[in-house]
Amino acid sequence: MTTTEIKTTEIKTAAVKAAAVGTTGTDQAPARINFAKLAPKAFRAVIGLDAAAREGLDPTLVELVQIRSSQLNHCAYCLHMHTGDARKAGESEERLHMTGVWREAKHFFTEKEQAALALTEAVTLVADGGVPDAVYAQAAAHFEERELAQLLALIFTINTWNRIALATGKVAGTDER
């Protein structure tokens, strides 16, 4: 086989693989639905839940929780959005970089933030063993009951947003807010 024939075969193979997975060969997924447009009531309900969940919570803590959940759920769209929001709110690059490894970098986070991050991980990964009593107790020790309820609502909400973004193929860096 000549070099030209080998290259032609490679191109054809790549095209067949791309067609098999429904892409154009440019690593772009096929277009998915616009959830906000096609399910506007449900979308507005999640926006309402999001706004309600944030009430009474420190905005810095809100972003840390949203970042950690988005990391765990592998949601690049939400991670990009919330790290950007955190930067705009004055969050340091150091803390943003350490959020994914907060247990190994505890000195970057307050005990209250650590409790929130632990609860975020447990709720986000609930199928891996539920929410351990020790994790819940740690959060309850740092948050008043109403604030703890708000924190849980925030964790539920970001997990919902992550699932919406992942299921509908949202692309990081294309936030339309």
Describe this structure in words.
This protein has helices at 3-21, 35-38, 40-54, 59-72, 76-88, 93-98, 111-124, 133-142, 145-167. With 177 residues, it is an all-alpha fold.
Q: What's a concise summary of this model?
A:
With 177 residues, the protein is mostly helical. The protein has helices at residues 3-21, 35-38, 40-54, 59-72, 76-88, 93-98, 111-124, 133-142, 145-167.
Beta percentage is under 5%
How do the helices and strands follow one another from N- to C-terminus? Answer: HHHHHHHHH
Mean pLDDT: 87
Number of helices: 9
| Category from helices, strands and their pairing | mainly alpha
Gap between N and C termini, in Å?
Answer: 53 Å
Task: Describe how the helices and strands are arranged.
Blueprint: H1 3-21, H2 35-38, H3 40-54, H4 59-72, H5 76-88, H6 93-98, H7 111-124, H8 133-142, H9 145-167
Question: What brief labels describe this structure?
Answer:
single chain; 177 residues; mainly alpha; globular
